[in-house]
Amino acid sequence: MNFRIAAAGHRRWILALFWLLVMFIRPASAAEDGPVITMGTAAQANAGLVVSVVHQGALGKSLDAMGTVMAEASRVVRIHPAGSGKVLSIAVVPGQHVRKGEVLLTYQDHSLHLVRLEMIKAESALSTAQAAYQNAAAAYSRGRALEGATVAAGETRRRLAAFKAAKDEIAARQADVDTLRHQLEEEYNSITESDKNQTSPTDETSAIISPTAGEVQSVLVGIADDLSPATEVVTLTDLSSVWIVSDILPQDAAQVAEGGEQSTELVSASGKTLLTSKITSVGDMADPATGLVHVISTVPNPEGRLHPGMFLNTHLPTREKTEGIIVPDSAVTEIDGVSTVFLPAGPNRFRPQKVRVGAESAGQKVIVSGLSAGDSIVTHGAFALKAIMQISDLSDGD
Fold first, then answer.
1. What is the rounded distance in angstroms from the CA atom of residue 346 to the CA atom of residue 365?
2. CA distance readout (Å), 333 to 60, 83, 341, 371, 376
């Protein structure tokens, strides 16, 4: 009898302990997809953890494609010399980035020598015309003073005609000088050429310079080559803005929205960033060689990170929309191949929540199941919570 009473008391004690444990554990584990992760306030600050309320919305589905960086056709600069001569030095190679005003090559400018000789002749002719004008002006002035006494009226009229002719001659010779000076100052000193580094008045060296910051595409001459104004010497590309050309199937091209925002993945040592740009052209016809249609997006490139020939992953917006909960890409992480977000579960506590992603575009994703409008989730710092969760799983396994 005493044994049965003791056994019954032991069972009641175990049952009470069980319900006590349930009361403490249940609030933290109810409706959870996984264990609760604890992260202190300091750790949250270090991870840049952000919790935000999510809302209903619509996101356009995107089409993944491979894009190629190309120089804009209107930004390709084909440089020709102003004069004729021989190449003295070449300072650049294809693929090299150059600054505005940087020397690309130098050449011995025979045309510059001829223009300078013409300038000397023109200045001499102007001086002669000015002297003749002074003599004609003086003769006409004396004729007017002595007219009717020692100088006949006809002589005065002849001297006036000579004076006017001398004045016209000065104007003509001055025009010659101005034309040659303009040629020296503007043609042989322009956005693509300079003679400023010459060491003496007889130095005939001209420098071909870059008209803009960009990348050298080709150098078409060599040392000692002859060149003329018709010779294309350097091809330069202004890379402050470039094209990203994506090739897609014709049936997919019909769904791409021209003017929509494309996102492009740019991977570097510091991680992956998304470049957003506007689609400026969707081709109507497929390339005969590939059977694919070109989609062109114009991307600002002020820092020169994009170079012609680079291959990048692009995400092209389509006209098809998906309704759901809109979250930033950083809110969703993959755990065991399942898309997961983290929800607050109390002070400094978070729990994983499985979700289904319907579409993603421009750094955002639409969640079609697993979340509701008004839920609070971790929108930045989910990767740190995932790392803590995985470390915890490893510890449990040991």
1. 26
2. 21, 63, 6, 15, 16
d(CA 367, CA 322) in angstroms, rounded, equals 9
Give the Cα separation of 220 and 316 in Å (integer).
38
Closest CA to 188 of 199, 179, 196: 196
Phi/psi at 174 (nearest 5 deg)?
A: -65, -35
| Token code pair at residue 262 | 């494309």
Tens of pLDDT, residue by residue over 93-112, are 998 989 999 999 999 988 87
**Residue 291, Ramachandran bin (φ over 0: left; ψ between -120 and 50: alpha; else beta):** left
Give the whole-angstrom CA distance, residue 86 versus residue 365: 61
Give residue 147's identity as a one-letter amino acid code.
E
Q: Angle formed by the axes of helices 110-146 and 153-182, to 10°?
A: 160
Q: Which of 339, 375, 385, 377 is nearest to 360 (CA)?
A: 339
Residue 290 backbone dihedrals phi, psi, to 5 degrees: -115, -20
d(CA 398, CA 396): 5
Decide if 173 contacts 125 (C-beta within 8 A): yes
Q: Burial letters for 133-170: b for 16+ Cβ neighbours within 10 Å, e otherwise?
A: beebeebbeebeeebeeebeeeebeebeebbeebeebb
Residue 355: pLDDT band with limits 50, 70, 90: very high
> What's the Cα-to-Cα distance from 107 to each of 95, 201, 218, 219, 333, rounded to whole Å?
22, 16, 17, 14, 60
Residue 141 makes CB contacts below 8 A (sequence gap 6+) with none
CA gap 41, 170 in Å, rounded: 88
pLDDT tens, position by position, 60-84: 778 889 999 998 888 889 999 988 9
- Max avg pLDDT among 106-115, 126-135, 297-306, 353-362: 126-135
Triad 97, 103, 105: Cα angle to 5°: 105
pLDDT at 148 > cutoff 80 = no
Residue 20 or 229, more confident:
229
